[in-house]
Amino acid sequence: MEGKMILSSQLRIIGPVGVGKSSFINTAIRRNVTTVGHDLKSCTAEIVHAITPYPSDSTRRVVFVDTPGFDDINADESEILRRIAAYIARSLVSTSFHNSNK
Question: Is the predicted pLDDT of residue 1 greater than 50, yes or no?
């Protein structure tokens, strides 16, 4: 794909523990890329992303970002928000850097 620009859309999936964030990502991508819990205990401890091609355009891709849930008994909500904000800041800097080199 040299010389061909890949455009990405990033979807950050955020919400309480146990609402199906990881299940949604696996269903959207049509393969198991994130671990899914089967009760109301937190399963996603770290922010992870999964990349899939855009269905109708091979020059695009979708990046799903799975985040730890709120109301987690093992983590403070302010810490979860801080980690999500740091991830977003890093992804914006990375995207800005890559776009400035085209």
Answer: no
Assign 102 to helix, strand or coil: coil
Question: How is residue 41 annotated by DSSP?
Answer: S
Alpha-carbon distance of 27 to 14, in angstroms, equals 16
**pTM assigned to the model:** 0.77
Burial group, residue 9, by CB count within 10 angstroms (0-12, 13-18, 19+): exposed
Whose CA is closest to 72, among 63, 64, 83? Answer: 83
d(CA 34, CA 26): 7
3 state DSSP class of 59: strand
Determine the distance from the C-alpha atom of residue 72 to the mean position of all C-alpha atoms in its chain, rounded to a whole number: 18
